[in-house]
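Review session, final week

We close the course with one last complete record, chosen because it touches almost every idea we covered. It is PEP-CTERM protein-sorting domain-containing protein, a protein from Nitrosospira multiformis with 255 residues. Go through it on your own first, then we will talk.
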Amino acid sequence: MNLKQASLIVGLSMTIFITSPVHAAVTLYDQNFEHPAAFVNDGGDVNIFNPVNELYGNQPVGFSFAQTNTVETLLITGNQAFGHGYSDPSGKGGNYALGMLSTEQNDWLGLSFNVGSNPFMNVRMDISSIDLSVFGGPFVTPGAVPTFEFTLYDNPSGVNSIGSGKILDVAQVSGIASPRDVFSWTEASLPLSTMGNTNGNVTLRIDLLEGGYAAMDNFHITADVSPIPEPETYAMFVAGLGLMSFLARRRRLLK
């Protein structure tokens, strides 16, 4: 490869990077579940009788929950679960997290909100296998891995729901096995397309497909006005920078 050919390659890689879509994210929702409106320990460090929306609805205004069956709020720092309380070695869970069943009864949690005119969104959260020592538990088979499914629905009416009708996008994520009383968090990041929604109103349904029982915490939802640049675009840019450095050194040697 001569200098002229190398310079052309550098120019092309830089042009592709510069003209690629620029990521511009707007934070819509940031919820660590540390401020429940009226948490009650119903036994075993579990609030089972207060629905999630009663504890966390409209935090902030415009974000509301709906659920099928019981989706629990867990007191991570309590002392009743399994006779001694839960353990969270990483501390990522703080004081509270949400928990749901998979197969014992099919729990669903829906989060309804407005994504605006943004065609993309990214959902980030922490998930962990965990179990209950009360209310029919334990439910987790040793070694079981939690798998969550996230389904984004169009919600033209804007009514709080668990989601129905037109599906905009679907994604799944799995955690790792953990002892029944220990939170072992996995960070999940899910890019979802909102394209095709009617008026910006959407519902994100969360369903635990496998694992018996599991927890989720630290929801962070951003809306994107443009796609995130593809990883290969960055790779080309970095390669171009390296080639530029090589060419500069070679020119100095040839002088």
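Two points worth writing down before the exam:
Residues 1-20+230-255 form one domain.
The chain has a mean pLDDT of 87.
Good luck, everyone.
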